[in-house]
Amino acid sequence: MEGLIIIILIVVIIVFSGMRTESHKTKIETQVLYLGGTLIGYERRNIFTGLGPFTVVGKGRVVYKIDYEVNGERKEGWVRFGGITGPDWRF
Length: 91
Known about the structure:
- The chain has one domain (25-90).
- It is built from 1 helix and 4 strands, in the order αββββ.
- It has one helix at residues 2-34, and strands at residues 38-45, 62-70, 73-81, 88-90.
- The mean pLDDT is 89.
- 36% of the residues lie in helices and 32% in strands.
- The chain starts with a helix and ends with a strand.
- By secondary structure, it is α+β, with helices and mostly antiparallel strands.
C-alpha cells in the first residue's frame, strides 16, 4: 500500500512539472508575440549553464534563455519565473 502511494505521488509530481513547463512556454510565446516577434527557441537554465542577468535564483524559481526574431533581427532575452511579483522579463 505504501508503495502505491509513493508511485501516485511521483506521477502527480511529474504531471505538475509538465503543466508548469507548458505554462511557462505559453507565457514566453505570448510575451514575444506582444513584442512583435517570433519565438525561435527557449532553454531552461540553471547555475551550471548560466543564469544570464540573474545572479540569484531561489527555491521554486526557474530561469529561461529566450531566442526570438523581430523584423528579421535575431535577439536574446531572459525571464525568471517564480517570484511574488510575477515573471521578471529582461529583453
